[in-house]
Amino acid sequence: MDDQLLSEDELLLKNTIKDFADNTIAPRAAHHDETGEFPWENMRGLAEMGLFGLGIDEEYGGSGGTNRQVAIVVEEIARACAATATTYGAHLFLCLHFIQMYGTDGQKRQFIPPLVKGETIGAFALTEPDSGSDAAAMHTTATGSDGSYLLNGSKTFITNADEADVLIVMASVDRSLRARGIIALIVEKDSTGLSINPLHGKMGIRASSTAEVVFDNCAVPMENRLGDEGAGFREAMEVLNGSRLTIAAQSVGIAQAAYDSALAYVQQRRAFGQRLADFQGLQWMLVDMATSIETARLLTHKAATLRDNGLPYITTASMAKLHASKVAVECADKAVQMHGGIGYFAPTDAERFYRDAKVMEIYEGASEVQRLIIARNIIPREESGN
Ligand SMILES: Cc1cc2nc3c(=O)[nH]c(=O)nc-3n(C[C@H](O)[C@H](O)[C@H](O)COP(=O)(O)OP(=O)(O)OC[C@H]3O[C@@H](n4cnc5c(N)ncnc54)[C@H](O)[C@@H]3O)c2cc1C
Predict the structure, then answer these.
(1) Where are the alpha helices (DSSP H) in the chain?
(2) Which active-site residues does the annotation give?
(3) Helix/strand/coil for 350
(4) Angle between helices 349-357 and 26-35 (to 10 degrees)
(5) Do the domains 123-230 and 234-378 sit in the same CATH topology, yes or no?
(6) Closest ligand 1 atom, residue 133 Cα
(7) CATH 1.20.1260.10 corresponds to the domain 3-121
């Protein structure tokens, strides 16, 4: 959304985060990308700014806040470093918000304050080697025994798992029930039978850590269950519905960064006796980028505003994720193109944006899954009996 349409408070928040993003996060982004080091300093900085408490009740140490504020903050972080935005998102919007939405008062008092302060790190484990988009087909089982659940199975591609002290894990108590047999559990790092195997070789967002999580008779107290038995899948989908607009905001941030780098480059590079910026062909590329970024941002803020107002927002959030992730990929592509050969090389930011953008179309519901959700919600079903 154009700054003119932000409230005074939103503008203040945006400028505060922008300052931190430009001066602290962005200068380290290429280093983190090259080394794949977990962005601890960035995470500590975000925690110190109170940003791990965004959308979390003050009673549990959070700072409250709106979904519009979330969209503003996430876009600014992603503009500076998409890997940090991914790390932040898994910690806050997938783990912390899950506990806030479905935890008992006791669970919230125990787990939320250290996560908000950044003393502990959170993760969310749904995907398995044989079930991603079709998450209800999961194989990980939870068998009740002596006040505990024994978990067996494995999860894959889990962001933050290697650093996490707290993982929200979905498992099935009865696979024949599919979605209705799934529970959500808070699993602590030191649980017996839990092992984490870091995964390497990611195309982009390299400083975000991704791991396999293996459960071998991993014992988790029943009191760590979030919500009712059988409600875990519905809860996870609800959490993902909200988090989806943060992926849209991440995508807008990457697209904006790609646009900014392309605009800066074409103003200083010369060919055929003039600036690249003076060639109409490149001007039109910039115009298309600016226009598509604006539409992606507006759609993201619309989804956030709907959610803030308690209105139906799921279709719009899916549209925002679908559209903004496509815009991120297209803008990163154009930015590399406008840089010419140098755009193909590190440490040009353009090549990092190109690699970082792609995952936006894959994680937290791939584009095809967003289309399934949108189709289900916009196309009336045929009356049964016809
Ligand atoms: C870097 C990274 C971080 C991640 N972090 C996490 C995390 O923290 N926690 C977590 O639980 N998961 C995480 N994931 C997993 C991610 O959410 C899944 O990869 C994603 O949901 C897709 O699932 P899949 O990989 O099994 O692909 P599949 O489900 O096998 O899909 C393969 C392709 O088929 C398409 N497809 C599937 N079903 C349909 C259909 N019905 N119609 C049309 N097309 C279809 C998909 O869209 C995709 O293009 C992460 C993934 C990555 C890459």
Answers:
(1) 8-20, 26-35, 40-48, 67-80, 82-89, 97-102, 105-117, 232-268, 280-308, 314-339, 349-357, 367-378
(2) 364
(3) helix
(4) 70
(5) no
(6) 29
(7) no
Instruction: Evaluate whether the domain defined by 234-378 bears CATH number 2.60.40.10.
Output: no
- Work out which ligand 1 atom sits closest to the CA atom of 127: 11
pLDDT, tens digit, for every residue of 283-313?
999 999 999 999 999 999 999 999 999 999 9
Q: What are phi and psi of 50, to 5 degrees?
A: 80, 10
What are 51's two structure tokens? Answer: 């940003």
Q: Is 125 in the pocket of ligand 1 (CB under 6 A)?
A: yes
What is the pTM (predicted TM-score) of this model?
0.98
The verdict on the CB of residue 209 being under 6 Å from ligand 1 is no
Per residue in 198-250, pLDDT (tens digit) is 999 999 999 999 999 999 999 999 999 999 999 999 999 999 999 999 999 99
What class, spelled out in words, does domain 123-230 have in CATH? mainly beta
CA pseudo-torsion sign 263, 303, 134, 154:
positive
Determine whether the shortest distance from the Cβ of 199 to ligand 1 is under 6 A: no
Q: Whose CA is nearest to atom 24 of ligand 1?
A: 132
**Domain locations in the chain?**
3-121, 123-230, 234-378
